[in-house]
Amino acid sequence: ALRGGAGAVRYVGPAGDAVIARFPETLVSDRGPERAGRVQAWVVGPGAGDDAATVAQVLAAQVPVLIDADGLRLADADAVRARTAPTLMTPHAGEAAALLGVAREEV
After folding, report:
1. Which long-range contacts (CB under 8 A, 24 or more apart) does 25-30 make?
2. Three-class secondary structure of residue 19 per DSSP
3. Which of 107, 83, 81 is CA-nearest to residue 94?
4. Which of 43, 62, 76, 101 has a CA 20 to 30 Å removed from the CA of 35?
5. How many CB atoms lie within 10 A of CB 70?
């Protein structure tokens, strides 16, 4: 996001110190998406682990969302379909196969 010219980037999640060490201009919070402050878009998934609640909170926000990595596994399909704001999913072949219920070779 920083390299792409996104402007202010707010990180919400674990390993905040590591994020600040690598990208000192990033705004870091561990308070959760619902209390993150002004946000114009979310990326959810990388590093989410088993945090389905955070993924659900992000999907409930009416701002653009990119869903990747663990977020693809944790996102509720009905919540994704119900979104009216722009939503982009970026699965690799294995994640796409799991989402589609097919073998990886079919993707």
Report:
1. 26/2
2. helix
3. 107
4. 76
5. 20
Q: Sign (positive/negative) of CA torsion 30, 34, 36, 40?
A: positive
Q: What is the pLDDT of residues 48-82, one digit of tens each?
A: 888 999 999 999 999 999 999 999 999 999 999 99
Rama region for 7: left / alpha / beta (φ>0; ψ in -120 to 50; rest) = left
With tokens 């870091």, the residue in question is 28
Q: For 6-65, write each residue's pLDDT tens digit.
A: 788 888 877 788 889 999 998 888 778 888 888 888 999 887 888 999 999 999 999 999
Look at the block and give the residue holding tokens 């998406």: 33
Q: Is the dihedral of CA 71, 75, 80, 83 positive or negative?
A: negative
